[in-house]
Design a protein that fits this description.
Layout: E1 18-21, H1 32-45, E2 49-52, H2 62-70, E3 75-82, E4 88-95, E5 100-104, H3 105-109, H4 127-138, E6 143-147, H5 158-163, E7 167-169, E8 188-190, H6 192-197, E9 202-207, H7 219-223, H8 231-246, H9 263-273, E10 277-280, H10 281-288, H11 291-296, E11 300-308, H12 317-327, E12 332-339, E13 349-352, H13 353-356, H14 366-383
Parallel strand pairs: 1-2, 1-11, 5-6, 6-9, 9-10, 11-12, 12-13
Antiparallel strand pairs: 3-4, 4-5, 7-8
Length: about 400
C-alpha cells in the first residue's frame, strides 16, 4: 500500500482555473464572439484555461451566436426584404438544420438599418421580419427562433403580421399604412390566415426584455424615445397600440399583458397573437448553445456586455450566465464598458473597462482592455475571493 505524499506547505497546490468566457456583444464595438476571444486571451495570459462560449439574449447578435454554436451544420441564406423605412434591404436568414430557422428581427427591421438623421418612429415597419419568416416557412422550416431585440419600429408587429397574410384594415377595409401611426386607423384585425400558415411550425420568440405592450414599461413609453420619438410621438404611439390591442381576437386572451409582448416595439405582441411562444431570450439562447455543459467543465465564469446597470437582471444575458454559475457554486465576474451598478447579488465582481486603464478610451480599445480585465479577474480568483472587489 502506497503512502500518501506529504504536502509541502512551502509549495501549496494551486487549482488550475478554467474560465468559461461567456459575454454578450459590446454594442457598437465588439461582437459577442470577438469579446469572448479577447477574454480568453486574457485568461491564458494569467495562466488559466479558457472555454469560449459567446451568448446573446434575443437582441443584435443572436443569429451569429446561434450559428457559431451549431458549427458546420449551420448556414445562412440572404434575401431582399422590406427595411424599416420601406426601402429594400438584404437580410440574413439563419438555418441551424434543414428545418430549424433563426430570424433576427434587427436584420430586417433594426435600428442599425436606419441612419440617425432618418429615424422615423411613427412610420417604421416590421414588415421585413414577417417576410423573412414567410421565406423560412416556404423553405420548409418547422421550427423558428425569432430574436426580437434592436428594432426601429413601434408598430405592434402589425407589419410582420401583414407580411404573413393577416388582415389589418381600416374602417373602409383598406390595409393600414405602415408603422405605429397606421394603427390609429385600424378597425379590424384578422390573424387567422397567419395561424393557418403557422399550423405546422413552432415559433419561439427570444425576448430581450420582459415588458408588456402598454403602460409605463411598455413598447411606446419605455422604448420609443430610443428610436427617435419625442413626447408627443410617444403618446400618439401609446394610443395607437392601445387601439390595436383592443381589437385583438379575444380568443387569444390578454396578449398585451404577456411578459415580452412589448419587445421590439410590440412585435412580441404581434407574434403572440399568431400563436408564437414568448420566452426569455437569454434563457433560450443559453439552452440552445449548451452553456450548461461549459459551466460544468469550468471553475469560474466571466461574462459581460457594454453596460452593467439595474436593467441587467431583467433578462439580460450576463445575468443568465451568473445565475447558472451560482447554481453550480462557481464565481462569476462581469466585465462591462461601463459599470453603473456592480450588482453584488449576481456577480462576484464587476470590472469596468474604464477603470482598467483610465488613459485608454474603452470604446476605441475594447479588445485590449477586455483582455487585460480578464487577466485581472483570473489573478483575483487565484489570490482568493477576498481580493475581488466590485468596481
Amino acid at each position: 500500500m502506497r503512502r500518501p505524499v506529504p504536502r509541502d506547505s512551502r509549495h501549496p497546490i494551486v487549482k488550475r482555473v478554467v474560465a468559461l468566457c461567456a459575454p454578450n456583444a459590446f454594442k457598437g464595438t465588439l461582437s459577442a464572439r470577438s469579446a469572448a476571444a479577447a477574454m480568453a486571451r486574457g485568461v491564458r495570459d494569467a495562466g488559466g484555461e479558457a472555454i469560449e462560449t459567446p451568448v446573446a439574449d434575443g437582441g443584435d447578435g443572436t443569429l451569429d451566436v446561434l450559428l457559431a454554436a451549431r458549427g458546420s451544420n449551420a448556414r445562412i441564406t440572404r434575401h431582399r426584404v422590406t427595411g424599416p423605412t420601406g426601402k429594400a434591404v438584404i437580410a440574413r436568414l439563419g438555418w441551424l438544420g434543414r428545418q430549424e430557422a433563426v430570424v433576427e428581427l434587427a436584420e430586417a427591421s433594426g435600428l442599425r438599418r436606419v441612419d440617425l438623421d432618418a429615424l422615423d418612429p411613427l412610420h417604421a415597419t416590421s414588415r421585413g421580419t414577417g417576410e423573412l419568416i414567410r421565406i423560412a416557412l416556404e423553405a420548409g422550416a418547422r421550427s423558428i427562433v425569432v430574436g426580437v431585440g434592436g428594432s426601429a419600429c413601434t408598430d405592434g408587429g402589425a407589419g410582420l403580421l401583414q407580411a404573413l397574410g393577416a388582415r389589418v384594415a381600416d374602417s373602409r377595409g383598406r390595409e393600414i399604412a405602415p408603422g405605429g401611426a397606421g394603427l390609429e386607423d385600424v378597425a379590424t384585425v384578422d390573424v387567422s390566415p397567419v395561424m393557418r400558415r403557422l399550423a405546422d411550425c413552432s415559433i419561439d420568440v427570444a425576448c430581450d426584455i420582459r415588458s408588456p405592450l402598454l403602460g409605463p414599461d411598455g413598447a411606446a413609453r419605455m422604448f420609443a424615445p430610443q428610436k427617435g420619438a419625442g413626447h408627443a410621438d410617444v403618446m400618439r404611439l401609446e394610443r395607437a397600440l392601445t387601439r390595436f390591442a383592443g381589437l385583438a381576437p379575444s380568443a387569444r386572451g390578454d396578449v398585451a399583458s404577456l411578459p415580452g409582448s412589448g419587445a421590439a416595439g410590440g412585435c412580441g405582441f404581434g407574434l403572440a397573437l399568431a400563436g408564437a411562444r414568448l420566452v426569455p431570450g437569454a434563457r433560450l439562447v443559453c439552452d440552445l448553445i449548451g452553456l450548461d455543459a461549459g459551466l460544468d467543465a469550468a471553475t469560474m465564469a466571466i461574462t459581460g456586455e457594454g453596460r452593467l446597470d439595474n436593467q441587467t437582471p431583467t433578462g439580460k444575458a450576463p445575468a443568465e450566465v451568473a445565475i447558472r454559475a451560482s447554481l453550480r457554486g462557481l464565481p462569476c465576474v462581469a466585465i462591462a464598458g461601463v459599470v453603473l451598478d456592480p450588482l453584488p447579488q449576481l456577480f462576484s465582481a464587476a470590472l469596468s473597462l474604464a477603470d482598467v486603464d483610465p488613459d485608454v478610451d474603452p470604446k476605441r480599445h475594447t479588445r485590449a482592455l477586455l483582455r487585460r480585465a480578464a487577466a485581472r479577474a483570473i489573478a483575483a480568483v487565484n489570490d482568493g475571493a477576498g481580493s475581488m472587489h466590485p468596481g
